[in-house]
Write a structure and sequence with these properties.
alpha+beta; 2 domains; seven-stranded mixed barrel; 7 helices
Length: about 375
């Protein structure tokens, strides 16, 4: 019921603000950014000033009001890949102190951190898909990015409604895994934590990683490319690269083996099944055409902290809920996990062999069905 109420509120605030042209006030928080005449770039942060005005739920906010949530320095840049081709740009920013150093703060009730994103949702005219998906995921998974809808002005020009979203990163309030130092090159410390992803090679902290030794499917011309996300590609040591690549190769090899269903020595030895199940459910519930092949994050903590590969956090649902005109189209029938490669085999990014193998494991399939049945009776009862 809490998820449904949150979504209804998002719909309400969107309807209240969607027709504005000469922007001056809103019942949404107002984010005002001033770059002081400097340009904004991709992958290089520009120093700027940020003010956030929010007087409380149900209270109108005016651009002339005193900033109540934040009034200080940031570094801002463009972010994203294909989304940078749209007229409404997405942004990433870090909150800074007066000396220019990272400054962890709480914004609009979200736990303290310094790294944030402003999601433009340009190709989702409802502006709802990402927000709803993150709320749903946060209700059932260990962590999903928290979101706040806001009005954004940059250099005195109104940009529209954006979604303030937590950037995916290692942090006790985000992806809660151990911190890896450059000196952590042996023992238990070397075993975690890591964040890796499947994604386009353009965008935030991407482009470096390794190619899977296994093809995504028989006779595929494509390869599957895993990328380092944490530690950053520029900071990860050779020993750390070797460790996580070797771990992933073992996990993949176990999935290719004849005894991959074995609960002790099969893929479950390396992969956390509970997080995998919830990851699949959220992506199939939204019929996300990018699922399993793009914006797909995984993380691993130290062996002393469990040590298995966990799936998530989930990310990027602006083409979900039927908002796509290629390959899977807007058809609600079928599953992305089973059908995408059949209807979109010419795509450069296809779904890796893992995902069908999971569903071929009878024990996993039964566990997935039971989890879905439970969620339908509780968390998703009012919305599905």
């Amino acid at each position: 019921m809490r998820v449904l109420a949150s979504f209804i509120f998002l719909v309400f605030v969107y309807n209240q603000t969607s027709g504005q042209v000469d922007f001056k006030k809103s019942n949404l928080p107002i984010i005002i950014i001033n770059t002081n005449g400097n340009e904004i770039y991709d992958d290089v942060k520009t120093s700027a000033d940020l003010k956030i005005i929010y007087n409380g739920l149900g209270i109108e906010n005016d651009i002339t009001d005193v900033p109540t949530e934040y009034n200080g320095k940031i570094g801002i840049e463009y972010r994203g890949s294909s989304s940078l081709g749209f007229p409404k740009f997405p942004y990433g920013f870090e909150t800074r102190d007066e000396t220019g150093e990272d400054n962890s703060v709480s914004l609009l009730g979200i736990p303290k951190e310094s790294d944030w994103t402003l999601n433009a949702s340009y190709n989702d005219k409802s502006l709802m898909r990402d927000g709803l998906a993150y709320i749903l995921a946060g209700d059932i998974m260990d962590y999903a990015p928290r979101v706040r809808y806001s009005e954004v002005m940059i250099n005195d020009e109104y940009q529209g409604i954006y979604l303030l979203v937590e950037k995916i990163k290692r942090d006790k309030n985000r992806v809660d895994i151990a911190k890896l130092e450059p000196t952590d090159n042996d023992g238990d410390a070397l075993t975690g934590g890591y964040i890796i992803k499947l994604d386009k090679e353009t965008g935030s902290n991407s482009g470096q990683g390794w190619i899977s030794p296994f093809k995504p499917y028989t006779n595929a011309w494509q390869n599957t490319f895993f990328q380092f996300d944490y530690p950053k590609a520029s900071l990860i040591t050779q020993a750390q690269k070797d460790y996580i690549i070797n771990f992933m190769n073992k996990a993949e090899t176990s999935l290719k083996s004849s005894n991959y269903k074995d609960p002790i020595n099969g893929y479950r030895k390396y992969m956390d099944v509970e997080s995998l199940i919830d990851f699949i459910i959220i992506n199939e519930l939204t019929k996300n055409p990018d699922a399993y092949r793009l914006s797909t994050f995984m993380h691993k903590n130290r062996d002393s902290e469990g040590g298995k590969l966990k799936f998530g956090p989930v990310w990027d649902f602006n083409l979900g809920f039927g908002n796509v005109d290629y390959c899977t189209q807007g058809n609600p029938e079928g599953l992305v996990i089973l059908n995408f490669n059949d209807v979109c085999s010419d795509d450069y990014w296809v779904i890796h062999f893992w995902w069908k193998k999971f569903l071929e494991d009878e024990a996993f399939y039964s566990q997935l069905k039971m989890r879905w049945k439970t969620l339908r009776q509780k968390n998703f009862l009012k919305i599905v």
